[in-house]
Amino acid sequence: MSSDKIELPLDLSYLYEISDHDREFIYEMIMTIVKNTPEMLDEIEEKGEVEDWYAVGRLMHKLKPSLLLLNIDNLSTLIRELEANAKAPKNIELIPDQIAELRKLCDLILSELDKLIKSDQF
Questions:
Q1: What is the DSSP letter of 4?
Q2: How far apart are CA 79 and CA 57, in angstroms?
Q3: On the chain, which terminus has fewer CB atoms closer than 10 Å, C or N?
């Protein structure tokens, strides 16, 4: 993993589509992601540290719907792979790195969502 700055363009087009361009709905969805994701990530990391793969898979399943709304390809791929690996369990040697990558991407996304909310640019 390089320390280069990652660019993750947030794509809210799917949110606009499913909400019929309802800004209040979009705001509520963004706020739900901002509010719930950090706690879910903490739980995923805790369960990963004790190698409770079933719990990691279950938590990923709960986290997945809201993050997939953001239409970020590499995040979507990571979420699906991590959930599948944890639920099987298979490729368990990859799971700790996948969890670390998930944290890194989500921290960046949460920062970007926070900027969108503060600037009212969603």
A1: S
A2: 10
A3: N
Nearest CA to 75 out of 6, 15, 2 is that of 6
Could you give the angle at which helices 23-49 and 95-119 cross, rounded to 10 degrees? 150
Q: How far is Cα 56 from Cα 48, in angstroms, rounded to an integer?
A: 6
Q: Which H/E stretch holds residue 32? A: helix 23-49
pLDDT in tens, 77-112: 999 999 999 999 999 999 999 999 999 999 999 999
pTM over 0.70: yes
> What is the rounded (10 degree) CA torsion for 6, 86, 50, 40?
60
The string of DSSP letters for 37-59 reads HHHHHHHHHHHHHTT-HHHHHHH
CA-CA distance, 108 to 115, in Å (whole number)? 11
- Smallest CA-to-CA distance from 11 within 71, 75, 78 is with 71
> Which residue bears the tokens 């719990």?
55
C-alpha 38: how far from chain center: 9
